[in-house]
Protein: Cystathionine beta-lyase
Amino acid sequence: MPKTSLQKQTLFSQPIRQAPQYIPTVQAPVYRASTIIFKNTDALTQRHWTDDYDYSYGTHGTPTTYTLADQIALLEGADHCLLAPSGLSAINLVNSALLDSGDEVWIPDNIYDPNHAHLNALNKKYGIILKVYTPTDVDSIEFGDKAKLIWIEAAGSVTLEFPDVIGIIKKAQAHQVLTALDNTWGAGLAFCAFDLDDQHLAVDISVHALTKYPSGGGDILMGSICTKNRTLHQQLLHMHALQGISVSGDDVAQINRSLPSMSLRYQQHQNNTQMILTYLVACTEFAQVLHPSLSNHAGHAYWQHICKDGQGAGLVSVIFKTEYDLKKIQQFCNALKLFRLGFSWGGPTSLVMYYNLKEMRQCSTAHLADGWLVRFCIGLESPEDLIEDIQQALAQL
Ligand SMILES: Cc1ncc(COP(=O)(O)O)c(C=O)c1O
Structure:
């Protein structure tokens, strides 16, 4: 123990033992900070929070958060990355940083619903103009003079239509409209949002709910916002600081720990999904099975074009025939033993959720059968066991 003349109550408010500069461990040490101590007044006056590696205050960043931000930027093929406490807060940061009163924003019909709800709120509060387009039809987008931002989701939420990502970006660029992709499904693995074709076509912003595959545990919430353009990054960083957005060092450390296994897990989720998909397609209870790899799926050709190795997340939806009413759908969900009833995806446990299609869409649903929709989020269990679970639950109807 170091000798000291300090009183115990003083002693415990100082770090007793400082780590040497470098200790070789597999995982980096975890920094938790609200206060960051400046060496002296020169260090205080020279720092600036808009510098990428500024250490000023916990909300701006620590070596732990900067490590994850760098890794996510690498994963997505971007140059800059900001972290937010959830995927939804990352989405909201983009909306609130970029949209001013009277601006027009476009969203696909199959967008993650809370993003739609946030933009609806901005519409009511600040007069932001909200327009909805059909993700597989670029012609359904007609930018007005005040168009500022268009959201893309590939594949879209719940019904999983795959958008014409390249067509949408080209049209947006021609009208100087910023493109923001919710890249949670592709996770930076199925395709590169910042290098989509041989002309290196790129989105302006990629938002990722790290809650899903990067975390992989079903236990941590976090989001990221990636960009290549430095001015855009600074604009987002400014709002990030103004809103006091920050993430816990411990949560970040969990994701730093999960990242090395992410591509293996993603591949396994996908393999399991393909096996279960083959089973679902053969079931007579369903009017339609929804997955971008199916040749009759809306946007299948766009998926094939972008996801060159046939990659994709572990999500598949089915539409039950109309004879299965709400009671029967609930009975089915309750009868499942391995699939648990819950939102989110990307964790080890398979999940199920049911939706009323009719309440969800504004654009044409002619490509979708009538009936209750059930979404399966395929986890890391044995696909044979998962198929048996669906089989036994269907048998009870
Ligand atoms: C496509 C998509 N984007 C964003 C989110 C939001 O992520 P979070 O749960 O971290 O807020 C979700 C959550 O389900 C999602 O499915």
Summary: The longest strand covers residues 147-153. The chain has a mean pLDDT of 95. Residues 109 and 134 are 6 Å apart (CA to CA).
